[in-house]
Amino acid sequence: QVQLVQSGGGSVQSGGSLRLSCATSEVPYSDYCVAWFRQAPGKEREVVAEIDNDGRTKYADSVKDRFTISRDNAKNTLYLQMNSLQPEDTAMYYCAAKNGGGSCDSSGSMDYWGKGTLVTISS
């Protein structure tokens, strides 16, 4: 089973910043569509940002201009830089990867998942 190892996250006050990382040595992110999802208590899992195998990025409207997804192919690591964090960003954040091209904004289409990391934003 492919392991995506997440790090980062934690608790910050509103307006603060955090960076999440997701590394693997088992699949080449450059050949995958990789994404960050989040799930808040009582809510469905939703895509936050994705970057496809050609490097094109897409963001949920709720995080556009605040979050940045990036990928370091040499380190095979995916990042999510989160700025101007708000209490509504509080959730468990997951990285995920889908083999091949195309979009990866559907949790059901992803092949591999990280175990999740908790992000808590206090007002």
How do the strands and helices of this protein lay out in sequence?
Layout: E1 5-8, E2 10-13, E3 18-23, E4 32-39, E5 46-51, E6 57-59, E7 67-72, E8 77-82, E9 91-99, E10 112-113, E11 117-122
Parallel strand pairs: 2-11
Antiparallel strand pairs: 1-3, 3-8, 4-5, 4-9, 5-6, 7-8, 9-10, 9-11
Walk me through the structure.
The protein has 123 residues and is mostly beta strands. It has strands at residues 5-8, 10-13, 18-23, 32-39, 46-51, 57-59, 67-72, 77-82, 91-99, 112-113, 117-122. A hairpin with a 6-residue loop joins strand 4 and strand 5. The radius of gyration is 13 Å and the shape is globular. The protein starts with a strand and ends with a strand.
Task: Please count the beta strands (DSSP E, at least 2 residues each).
Answer: 11
Silhouette: globular
The Rg value, from CA coordinates, equals 13 Å
Order of helices and strands: EEEEEEEEEEE
Give the gist of this structure.
With 123 residues, the chain is mainly beta. The protein is built from no helices and 11 strands. The strands form 2 sheets. Strands 2, 4, 5, 6, 9, 10 and 11 form a 7-stranded mixed β-sheet that branches. Strands 1-3-8-7 form a 4-stranded antiparallel β-sheet, with no helix packed on it.
